[in-house]
Design a protein that fits this description.
homotrimer; 351 residues; 3 domains; Trimer_LpxA-like_sf (chains A, B, C); transferase (chains A, B, C); repeat (chains A, B, C)
């Protein structure tokens, strides 16, 4: 792929350019490993010191760092270009989008002859149906949607316009996802929720009669599962971002723009607010309600509803094994330690 | 789908009907969001107060609530029907089964022409082999079994009668599942267990020579993995219910009617008793034995065998981040706190 | 499968045979469940007592146990054969490999006609491309590689010689895996890393422009995910062994011969050293560095870098539910307990 000039980037994405517009950019990269054809960015002030030493052709910076970014090359006589913009991280995000559109193959409109498509399915304009995809009766694929190889769109399921499914995604019957979504490989949307009634020591299945309804601009990571509702639907609102290997139980509702990191899980019938973040491997039990703007740290088990925005945590602090063993063993006597402390306080105070 | 009358439901499922048999039911739903065509149920006495306010056409209740259920509409002049039955939750489970059979397409007997089936495979009567399924040499598919699109039934594997595999399930070579099972999308049964011998800093593979043997009436959630045994087989007994994203290591044995919630995991060679429940994201290390009727709370790490029935727990209680930080930091000194307390006790007692 | 004689095994794998070379071996099995045609092994001295009672035809032992192994049958007049070797566990590993090669079907060189292969893909000598596999433009499959049914090898991806992909594996565009690898079912290599810039309450996608680079002799368990890098690549070095259901974030680097157990996870941009072991369900946050020879216990959350080899742990010790509740509740007051203890110490000392 041939390099681009900084002027082309500025023309596409804006920003104030300090330095030579014809500077050639061959890659986007981190400050630390940048070379003379790299466009880098400084977002976290923690990495500010790297400005002085980076070999990057150009650095995207906030106004406060404009001087440092342009003067860094002065001593060495380098070009020291900079793009100044109020939010370098957002600029960087858009740069990656522009770059990806440039270097990746353009989407094609095609229906691969090996796909198995029921005649009653509806395909929008300009869709791309990959090899060996299966599209069942009554399914609807929106304009410009891309269905990867080996995807299964079950009966009466719906994929919104512009949504992209990677290879090997299942969208269960009656489930739907909105516009501009991205679903990565191995995702299962619409498997049965886990519901059983006890019956003389065995389990009687509760058929799951709801579906999954996913809004617009939702991204779902590889091998994540979202179960269909038992009676009503499981709902993922607009703009939600789910990482890989996540488990969403039946009848969960996740509010707009909430983001969940890998391996986290939400049990059935819990409602998560909007603008929340859930750390990796965090787990939330069923039938809870979390308010908007709640942030759960990685690995934390949430066992009660949370009505107040804020950060919540609960992981055992790791240590070298010998220390951990001593402290963990003592932890099992913690309640009795408190009782002994109380007794001592009483005695001392009465002395 | 047209509504049904209460009399049809009673005819199919039994129960004592209080109220008009011709009452039309269009959906099954929760008490709280019920409307005048909804059939709801009251199982947990905690929700008893909803009886007074629900708009449901009919409520399934235990005898103790029959009066409250039928009189709820009296003031408003409503019909206030009720189905009285000793176990409303079990009745509800069976109702969902009956309802699903009514509203879902009937299973068909077909072998999709795109499936790749080895001539030496054996297909029972009335099987449904979905598009693009792969059935290898020597595999056996029982009567009435349903193999979803993109499933892979490897050589000499066996699927019992009436068992249903959703799309994209792998049943590994020599593995077998019994009758009336349900396997959801993305499940991998029979991948190699994780076994290696150390060899001069590297790892030498221990080939996994066992298989996976799964009993009757087992349900397995989406993207769950069950590894084949190293020498003997991994065994899942009758009636076990596994949720999504579960990991079962090699040579594990799970006793009858045990249920495991999502994201839980069992390491190799551990034996779990019958009638146990394992909470979500709980993890059990290898080479342990858990007795029958052991219940593990969500998120708990089980590191020793358990010989006594009961409930076992071990998660760090979450808190707002500031409190958690203070307590977690102190936890690392817990052993020394105990020593200080002892010293103080000694000193105080000797004073 | 017909039995083999001990002499055949010794001819193939070496070791000092004590006992009759013509002894017939029909299976490899554990000491405890061995019968008169079983070849067993003793590696862990903990199981030494089983030597006296096992019915095994032959036991693989270290020199220190040679006498016990051969004399065990003396009283009963049994044959009591033994294979004496310095590292019985390694011998056992190689025996399973030899046994598997003997009892499993030989790999075939074939390109199944149902596979969808782009004409610009490069296939090596003797490859096996399974039914319904998809191989996209520019992909390269090395000599003797085996691509299972329903695998997707995306554009410009590369599979090294002798590497085996089970059914339903995705190798994303531009990603590559080296020689002699084993990848189990449902694995997704090269899904997008989880990267977003906040933008007025919503999330702006950071396109992931890197790939995944995997070395030689790497094994990857079922349904594990390895994300592509954001700018640079995600790197898995030679000899790494990953169990099932693992999540590897973007730009992670895992050093040679490190092994990770099931359900563990590493967040983005963390570097793990060589020869580490990561326990099941352990989780490591992003942007950390772990030294070589670091061992993380199961279920432990690693929140800071580790520069010193050793074993690190941090799980809440489980207990019966009543005890856990008492201790967990007290844990939330731990910091204030320390303050009270301090106050008491001060008072006592000043008395």
């Amino acid at each position: 792929m041939s390099p681009v000039s900084l002027s082309e980037i500025i023309a596409a994405l804006g920003g104030d350019l300090h330095g030579a517009p014809e500077t050639a950019i061959a890659r986007i990269g981190p400050l630390a490993s940048a070379d003379a054809t790299t466009l880098a960015f400084l977002s976290n002030p923690r990495y500010q010191s790297q400005l002085a030493t980076t070999a990057a052709a150009c650095v995207i910076v906030a106004p406060a760092f404009a001087e440092a970014a342009t003067q860094r090359g002065a001593a060495a006589g380098g070009s020291a270009a900079a793009i100044v913009t109020p939010d370098p991280y957002l600029y960087f995000a858009r740069l990656t989008q522009w770059w990806a559109a440039r270097v990746r193959p353009q989407p094609v409109a095609r229906i691969h002859p090996s796909a198995v498509i029921d005649p009653s399915a509806t395909l929008g304009e300009g869709v791309d149906i990959g090899p060996l995809a299966v599209i069942e009766a009554g399914a609807r694929i929106g304009d410009g949607a891309r269905i990867g190889p080996h995807c299964v769109i079950e009966r009466n399921a719906a994929v919104g316009p512009g949504t992209r499914l990677a290879a090997r995604v299942t969208l269960g019957y009656d489930c739907r996802i909105g516009a501009r979504g991205i679903v990565h490989g191995g995702v299962v949307i619409g498997a049965d929720g886990f519901g059983f009634a006890p019956n003389k020591g065995a389990w009687e299945k509760i058929e799951q009669l709801g579906a999954v309804v996913i809004g617009d601009d939702v991204e779902i990571g590889a091998n994540t599962c979202i179960d269909r509702g038992a009676l009503d639907d499981t709902v993922i609102e607009d703009g939600v971002k789910l990482d890989n290997q996540i488990q969403i139980g039946h009848n969960v509702r996740i509010g707009k723009h909430t983001a969940m990191a890998g391996c986290s899980a939400i049990a059935g019938s819990t409602t998560i607010g909007a603008h929340c973040t859930i750390g990796g491997a965090a787990m939330i039990i069923g039938h809870l309600t979390l308010a908007d703007h709640v942030h759960i740290s990685m690995g934390t088990a949430i066992t009660r509803s949370i009505s107040k925005p804020g950060q919540y945590s609960g992981v055992f602090p790791f240590d070298d094994n010998a220390n951990w063993e001593k402290n963990a063993a003592t932890l099992r006597q913690l309640h009795s330690l408190r009782e002994r402390l109380r007794a001592l306080e009483k005695k001392t105070n009465s002395d």
